[in-house]
Amino acid sequence: MNESTVTxxxxxxxxxxxxxxxxxLIRNSGEVPRVVxxxxxxxxxxxxxxxxxxxxxxxxxxxxRKGTPxxxxxxxxxxxxxxxxIDLMLENxxxxxxxxxxxxxxxxxxxxxEVVLDILPGAQRGAFVKEHGEAVIDAAGKRVAGRxxx
Length: 150
Prior knowledge:
The chain is of the alpha+beta class. It has one domain (about 5-135): 3-Layer(aba) Sandwich (Glutaredoxin). The chain contains four helices and six strands. The strands form two sheets. It has a four-stranded mixed sheet. The protein has a two-stranded antiparallel ribbon with strand order 5-6. The longest helix is centred in the N-terminal third of the chain and has 12 residues, at about 15-30.
């Protein structure tokens, strides 16, 4: 893989089904993404701040509750500042929701996984079925009706 030709980056957790499905959709478009396993290699603070800014979402919207220390830390309290929440995401990367995908067309938290289709530079190259068996893309590379298809 030539690093200069990589146009898509995914902040990925291989243990997450949504993240695996997003990675599959990226690859189904012909992209060979840069995969960052953010639990092993968390982004630097400046990178995380920039990702949040480019997604255009509040910091709190990037927090993950399920399977994290969110409740133990009392992160639903409105007294936590954005800077404090970012610090906690860096200290406990599991608090960061995923997958985050960066392409030339934008940055998105791809939940549900179909969100990635809005920012991929290339079209889907064939059928794609999620791990649990739900068809998302048909054999012609088009979104299956009822899955956010235009």
